[in-house]
Design the sequence.
């Protein structure tokens, strides 16, 4: 068996993943609408031999609360498929994964846009399928309204199947067949007749076949139905596990489901998020972390803490005092309990708790030397918790630059990460099976 | 009054506008899926100081008839917004106009994609609004089906209004306001509450304001309701007039409608199509034209001729004989009559007629020296038939290269076309008024 390598994604987000990244002196505040910034960051990821860059999305502003919206930069001016098309022609190997929802479009249009990105990039496109749980998005598309979870997933299942059918309906070598007498060899086009409850498609995708068979499918399902959809259709799943035990449980659960759909263990890569803050020394890393934390406005931190705790408001309580006793809700009891327990255990004030949770946004955070960060990643990679990681740099470009310069060579030295790309397509680099046709 | 300059668009279409372009020895057959080809052609247009490049679209294959589909290359592998995002970062001044339909998406998503293109390009985006009359498209989006003309336009009116409202809902300077303490100045965001029969939007566009106020609106309305929509909302209209008299009538008609909506005569540019074949001498130009015509496969030409004549099939008649007598239909009587008359007047065979109409696809074709082509354009520009032209080069890149090298300097010498771009945004170069806000 060949050496097993971890897969790496670079989760790009405007100025950085840290909630106060845009206020840091190293930050480029208007990063979210600066295409040159995104191209530069994508090239850093490619220099680091990352499998892919990843762009999140929601078709709406992200915060209804003006305090949060005014002070917490999260999103970009760029719709992800447009952004990645511009990046595609400025990179050569790194995969390009765009988030897109199945709730407010139809399969033909989206399948076609991803086919275009795949052609533009020579086979590096990936689609992170989401179902859009946000009310703010639903209000922008009032012809539908926010559907309940089960309906969203029912629609997502159909949407994915119709898109896959469209991509598979065009064989390799359909256009400009040998001889040059005809433009298209119609025997290689297989019209799709896909009829479901939410969609119907009778046609042929207006595109050549993908250079990688079809675009890579990505998902981040956490619910049962979400994990099943991932096990059935996805090549990559992202996850948001804090502890190693949580990550192992998620990993085992998703891998177990693959058998149901006749798929092998290597056909789906599990890539949890990691938010690394790297310094040449542990002290330097911690100082970087503290510097970022200092920039979190109290209003933002406390409003986020309140939303994590499912309470309306915490502003009546002293910032430097402890959390008040509060009612429990069933919905997110475990996260609530985690916050309350941490506050009591470490004697943290509201301000301290707010900064703690706002900064990392609840993701797995590792602060340390290159060797310490590599240790943490390698441990989860080897112990059945991950096939790779989605790296969420706190600050762009410096946070990703640190990771590529300091951590990637360490992972390569240990033999757990590639030194060169295996190929030019995302599918080839991920090492996931091609669809049968074409 | 300052010198009046004509506006020029370069209508890009894979290997060329001539139906047999892809079979020509100078052609790059797989042009439609080669992004480097498109970037090179866009740069030729920019070198020629063109106002814009223009990408047509339909979300479907273009021909149901396999004879036509197999032999007549028309379309590209690239969805236009993706294609133009990739071109945006490889050009600096030329406008980028993508065709997109109002029939199969909702306003928020499309407004956001055009806002992204506008940000990516620094204010060079334009939207050619179409309503999609093709059944092939409707079959790909069966949740709706092909709507009758009046319903398509009713939907288009609402779609355009909602998109305009979203673009206008964000003021200049909303993000990163002076002082740097907040990410967004919420007093400059104006939530849209747009409720119509087909759409409802309650939200704020996730984008900064367009660098050109808002994207340029383009239309090609030929019906009454289409011309009214253009007069009310568009900055540019394309037209397909053959004769000067037709072009003048269309021009006067559209300009007259502007008053109804309180708009000035210069607020809407009328740009008919022209298919120029340019040679250093008239003989060379004619030879280029004949060479292209030779490549039209008889099956394609005759099938197209049959479709123009609204008859099922012409294959029972000798190719080198005259057209048979045929029944008239009301629908496109005038085009039918034009073909029948031309055949009789010039004694053309079915093959000759087929080539004549298939090659130019019914657009205004000018074959001649740079001076002859400039004469033809200048005449229509000065005689109230056009504010500019949408140039449909028969073959890419050579046909556009010929135009830029030979005809553009001639137009510049005559003082009817710019020598340098007036600015960096499409709106500035077109010289059309900015929307009020922002």
Sequence:
């Amino acid at each position: 068996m060949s050496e097993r390598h971890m897969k790496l994604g670079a989760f790009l987000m405007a100025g950085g993943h840290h909630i106060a990244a845009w206020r840091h002196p190293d930050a480029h505040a208007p990063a979210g609408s600066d295409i040159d910034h995104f191209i530069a960051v994508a090239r850093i990821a490619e220099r680091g031999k990352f499998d892919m860059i990843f762009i999140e999305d929601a078709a709406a502003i992200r915060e209804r609360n003006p305090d949060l919206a005014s002070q917490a930069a999260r999103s970009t001016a760029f719709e992800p498929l447009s952004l990645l098309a511009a990046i595609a022609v400025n990179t050569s190997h790194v995969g390009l994964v765009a988030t897109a929802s199945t709730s407010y479009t139809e399969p033909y249009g989206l399948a076609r846009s991803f086919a275009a990105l795949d052609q533009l990039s020579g086979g590096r496109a990936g689609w992170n399928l989401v179902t859009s749980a946000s009310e703010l998005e639903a209000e922008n598309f009032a012809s539908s309204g926010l559907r309940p979870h089960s309906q969203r997933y029912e629609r997502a299942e159909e949407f994915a199947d119709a898109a896959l059918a469209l991509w598979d309906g065009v064989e390799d070598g359909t256009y400009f067949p040998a001889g040059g007498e005809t433009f298209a060899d119609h025997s290689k086009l297989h019209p799709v007749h896909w009829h479901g409850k939410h969609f119907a498609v009778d046609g042929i995708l207006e595109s050549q076949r993908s250079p990688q068979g079809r675009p890579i499918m990505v998902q981040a399902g956490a619910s049962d139905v979400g994990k099943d959809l991932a096990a059935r259709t996805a090549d990559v799943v992202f996850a948001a596990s804090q502890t190693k035990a949580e990550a192992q449980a998620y990993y085992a659960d998703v891998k177990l489901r693959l058998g149901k759909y006749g798929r092998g263990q290597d056909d789906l890569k599990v890539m949890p998020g990691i938010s690394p803050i790297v310094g040449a020394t542990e002290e330097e890393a911690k100082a970087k972390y503290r510097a970022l934390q200092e920039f979190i406005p109290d209003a933002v931190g406390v409003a986020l803490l309140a939303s994590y705790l499912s309470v309306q408001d915490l502003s009546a309580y002293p910032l430097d005092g402890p959390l008040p006793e509060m009612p429990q809700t069933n919905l997110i009891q475990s996260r609530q309990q985690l916050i309350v327990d941490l506050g009591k255990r470490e004697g943290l004030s509201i301000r301290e708790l707010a900064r703690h949770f706002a900064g990392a946004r609840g993701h797995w955070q590792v602060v340390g030397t290159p060797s310490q960060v590599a240790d943490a990643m390698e441990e989860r990679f080897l112990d059945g918790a991950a096939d790779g990681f989605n790296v969420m740099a706190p600050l762009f470009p410096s946070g990703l630059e640190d990771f590529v310069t300091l951590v990637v060579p360490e992972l390569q030295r240990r033999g757990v990460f590639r030194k060169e790309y295996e190929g030019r397509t995302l599918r080839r680099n991920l090492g996931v099976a091609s669809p049968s046709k074409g």
